[in-house]
Amino acid sequence: MTTPQQELLPGTSRALLHRIAVAQAEGRAPSLVAAVVRDGRAVWHGARTSVDGHAPDENVQYRIGSITKTFTAVLVLRLRDEGVLDLEDPLEKHLPGTGAGEATVAQLLAHTGGLAAETPGPWWERTPGSLRPELADVLGDQAAPHPAGRRHHYSNPGYSLLGSLVEQLRGAPWEEVLRREVLEPLGLGRTGVRSEAPAAGGWAVHPWADVLLPEPAEDFGRMAPAGQLWSTTGDLARFAAFLARGDDQVLGAETLREMATPAAPAGLTDVVDGAAYGLGLQIQHRDGRLLVGHSGSVPGFLATLTIDVADDVGAVVLANCTSGVQTSQVASDLVRIVAEAEPRIPEPWRPLRAVDPGVLELAGQWHWGTSPLALRMTADGQLSLGPLSGDGRRSRFRANGDGTWTGLEGYYAGELLRAVRRPDGSVDHLDLGSFVLTRQPYDEGAAVPGGVDPEGWRGIG
After folding, report:
1. d(CA 66, CA 49)
2. Is residue 365 a contact partner of residue 374, using CB atoms and an 8 Å limit?
3. Which residues lie closer than 8 Å to 141 by C-beta, 6 or more apart?
4. Local structure of 97: helix, strand or coil
5. Predicted confidence (pLDDT) per residue in 400-438, tens digit
6. Is the pTM of this model over 0.85?
7. For residues 404 and 398, what is the distance between their CA atoms, to the nearest angstrom?
8. Which of 160, 165, 190 is nearest to 177 (CA)?
9. Helix (H, G, I), strand (E, B) or coil at 46
10. 5 burial class (0-12, 13-18, 19+ CB within 10 angstroms)?
């Protein structure tokens, strides 16, 4: 289905076209296709090609490389949400004898399982998967060069193991489970492990001359869950909308937020680059925006899917060349162009339909020692706590239904917030993980740890 270009302003559409035209020309890509998603649906598609009269549309397949890992992660999170496994389970509990040591499911998802980056033997992306028929052939003798859980070390074999885990627990091939549980429910009919015409051919472009060499399109076998998929900008636009909003047929929004939360310790270069990794999703701070998604590359193809959740804008960029186009930068630029040219119009403010007086009583200014804080009720029934101004610890809190709240992020993630009341029912103070918050700084009428000097506040004379 062709998306009407007029859904974006003409100036915005031209800026998007200019950006991909520059990328295709300077990156010397045989072809490059892109799509932009806003408010849960595709609003723009563009293409540039070296072949006159054959511009690919949103239905032409390209290999998407490691974006496949996000699909595999979705399958694993579905098993967790169904109670079939726990993310802290060692892989050995469900898939014994792999040689992956004590790596847990969560660590494999976040690339912190300590496994090697690549398989032993010949380059797996340019050789038949039949060369690696068993998991032992994927991992080799030096499967874990790092202790599990200590560092982020990107591992393609780790996602091969996760694909085998899915097969073990579902009793069906990874490809079949993926189609039944993700592709069909989301309407991704042009995504699969093998190409179906129309599909782009993969090319290597000579670094010092404008000539081409075809790249092989191998079946990766057991490595398929790490990078096998072919897809289109049309399908990936729908997948991006799913990642931003969730779909109860596949995964709910809360689980997708969990996937987009950093789960791996960042290395020094990652800190400098503003990069992190969640559970099958890359997280990037770029141009003042927090972007989530994944990039991918296999010989002959480059791909990126990225989403700015705050602005509800996403982009997909696919190219059929081994190197040359910085698809991650192009995709983030497409997001920036739309978000800046056509800022998101917020929903109208509306008052709450009902409010708990006991909760409303807690809203307002509090103090931790002498630091003033603001506790606010949010439109979704949660509480948020943060400094009145400037930087400091911030968190949202979810109601537990018993008069307490649990922190959802930052320093207070998992910590309990509760109101401590006097015998007459009035609030004495808030207890936040043993921190006492009072209405006045060191309120002498509240139970401040260590007490308050009886002479009170004073000057120095």
Report:
1. 24
2. yes
3. 120
4. coil
5. 989 999 999 889 999 999 999 999 989 999 999 999 999
6. yes
7. 8
8. 165
9. strand
10. middle
